[in-house]
């Protein structure tokens, strides 16, 4: 377990997963074992969304397509801790083009035992605890013109019966998120959201452009920065939401202000 500390804030990171963010003795992160979700955060890469209706295959410019399960294969890879200080830590995942990756959803939720992606990439996740906020950065490097989507999937612990999600244009209550179900509620063209609960937390982003919100219980909610909302198209058209890597690294940031 990696722990970061700065004044009255502490952060817990378990193998690259944000499992705790405490400020003034208040825990903001959904705890594993609590109802709702078995994780506390994860990344969605190189695709966002399900592919069961497309036989778990997504169209890419190279080859005849790639076999992916819901939210991509990155979550099946293990993070390596590459640096750590009292207030910062950097983790890395590497993938070699064409390498078969065991699908943890097989056979209960998927008929594909192995996943693969026809591009080589390195994915870094860095944490930096600053004064009053936690900055989480995602750096993607590798082959030029690799298609990808990126989503960050943190879960926040709820304390009150009527939390509110506030953007610069609307207020969303928990019942509205619950009503959408597994598809997740789209929040389009949005770079920051405030979750008002017992204590407020504001999520500000760089590079993502949108959010989606998901929960199926009342004790947590996922507020997820995304580059593309996957339910805007049919699963066989998911490739229309890709971005493409360039010669320089692609960097995305999420800052949690408390």
TrEMBL record:
Name recorded for this polypeptide: Aldose epimerase
GO molecular function (one): isomerase activity
Record keywords, A-Z: Calcium
Lineage: superkingdom: Bacteria
InterPro entries: Aldose_1/G6P_1-epimerase, Gal_mutarotase_sf_dom, GH-type_carb-bd
Keyword Calcium (UniProt): yes
Record Pfam families: Aldose_epim (PF01263)
Keyword Calcium part of the UniProt annotation: yes
GO terms under biological process: carbohydrate metabolic process
Subunit structure: Monomer.
């Amino acid at each position: 377990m990696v722990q970061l500390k700065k004044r009255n804030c502490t952060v817990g990171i378990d193998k690259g997963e944000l499992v705790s963010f405490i400020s003034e003795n208040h825990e903001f992160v959904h705890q594993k074992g609590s109802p709702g979700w078995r994780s506390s955060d994860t990344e969605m890469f190189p695709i966002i969304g399900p592919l069961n209706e497309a036989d778990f295959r997504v169209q890419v410019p190279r080859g005849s397509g790639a076999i992916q399960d819901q939210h991509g294969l990155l979550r099946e890879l293990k993070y390596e801790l590459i640096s750590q200080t009292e207030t910062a830590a950097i983790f890395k995942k590497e993938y070699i083009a064409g390498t078969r990756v065991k699908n943890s959803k097989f056979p209960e939720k998927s008929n594909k035992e192995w996943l693969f992606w026809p591009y080589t990439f390195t994915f870094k996740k860095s944490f930096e605890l600053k004064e009053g906020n936690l900055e989480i950065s995602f750096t993607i490097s590798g082959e030029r013109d690799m298609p990808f989507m990126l989503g960050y999937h943190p879960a926040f612990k709820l304390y009150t019966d009527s939390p509110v999600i506030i953007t610069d244009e609307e207020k969303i209550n928990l019942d509205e998120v619950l009503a959408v179900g597994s598809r997740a509620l789209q929040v389009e063209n949005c770079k920051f959201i405030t979750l008002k609960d017992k204590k407020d937390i504001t999520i500000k982003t760089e590079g993502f452009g949108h959010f989606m919100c998901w929960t199926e219980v009342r004790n947590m909610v996922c507020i997820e920065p995304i580059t593309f909302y996957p339910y805007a198209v049919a699963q066989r058209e998911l490739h229309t939401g890709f971005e493409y890597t360039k010669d320089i690294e692609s960097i995305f940031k999420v800052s949690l202000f408390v």
